[in-house]
Amino acid sequence: MSLKVRIRRIGNTSGVILPESMLSALNIYEGDFLFIEQNEDGISLTPRDPELTTVFHDSEKIMDLRRRALRQLIPPTEVAG
User: Residue 26 domain-assigned?
Assistant: First the structure.
C-alpha cells in the first residue's frame, strides 16, 4: 500500500499524519513507536526495531547450527500419568 501525505508543522518541528486505516492495518496505535530507516530509495517506517530484528535472525542462525547442543541443554520432561 502506498500513500501520499503532506509534511506539516507540528509544534516546533515537522511531521506527517498517518491515517487511522493504515495504523489499524499495521496494528499500531497512538503512543506506539515507529522506526525510520534511511535507504537508497528514501525512507521506510516500521513498528519493529530493525537492529533487534537483525539480532533475532542471527540468533536463529546460531540455533540452527547448534541445534543438537541446545537440545542437550533442555532437561527431560516428565510424562504425567
Answer: yes
SS3 59: helix
Q: Check whether 46 has a pLDDT greater than 90.
A: no
Instruction: Using the Cα atoms of residue 45, residue 19, residue 27 and residue 2 in order, give the sign of their dihedral.
Output: negative
- Domain of 18 in residue numbering reads as 8-73
- Structural domain tally of the chain? 1
Quick check: pTM over 0.85? no
* Cell numbers that stand for 18 in this block: 498517518
* CA distance linking residue 55 with residue 50, whole number of Å: 9
